[in-house]
């Protein structure tokens, strides 16, 4: 299975991955009204999806050589400021990579201003690939 083949759900979030390794994942989302809550701002679930996806991808790539993948066991995403539209950058990097678990930090920033929009930390469990 190709870890960059995303589900319909992840594709709907608009996350576009431009770099993916076991130590760094980079991408962006072009936000628009399709990402809005009924109140006209981007839904926090968009950011949580980006955080979980980027961390899971990087963590899985880090253990792929061992025929493992990584699954999120805890995701804590903070929503820092509301936005309505525009491109946001997503960058994920590991804080810790161990034999059984990993901890990744993911930042979401406005491309135009560099201001933080959201920040997430994901704890992942390394598991053997299913047969």
Automatic annotation (TrEMBL):
Q: Which UniProt keywords apply?
A: Hydrolase
Write out the coiled-coil annotation as residue ranges: none
Which InterPro entries does this chain map to? HotDog_dom_sf, PAAI_dom, Thioestr_dom
**Which ranges does the record mark as transmembrane?**
none
The residue ranges of the Thioesterase domain are 40-112
CDD domains referenced in this protein's UniProt entry, alphabetically? PaaI_thioesterase
Q: Tell me its family.
A: Belongs to the thioesterase PaaI family.
Spell out the protein name for this chain: PaaI family thioesterase
The species this protein belongs to is Antrihabitans stalagmiti
């Amino acid at each position: 299975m190709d870890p960059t083949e995303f589900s319909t759900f992840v594709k709907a979030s608009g996350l576009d991955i431009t770099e993916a390794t076991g130590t760094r994942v980079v991408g962006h989302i072009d936000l628009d009204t399709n990402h809005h809550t009924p109140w006209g701002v981007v839904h926090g679930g968009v950011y949580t999806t980006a955080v979980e996806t980027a961390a899971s991808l990087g963590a899985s790539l880090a253990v792929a050589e061992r025929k493992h993948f990584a699954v999120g066991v805890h995701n804590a995403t903070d929503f820092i400021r509301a936005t309505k539209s525009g491109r946001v950058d997503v960058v994920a990097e590991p804080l810790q990579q161990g034999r059984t678990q990993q901890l990744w930090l993911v930042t979401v920033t406005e491309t135009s201003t560099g201001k933080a929009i959201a920040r997430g930390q994901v704890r992942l469990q390394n598991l053997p690939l299913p047969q």
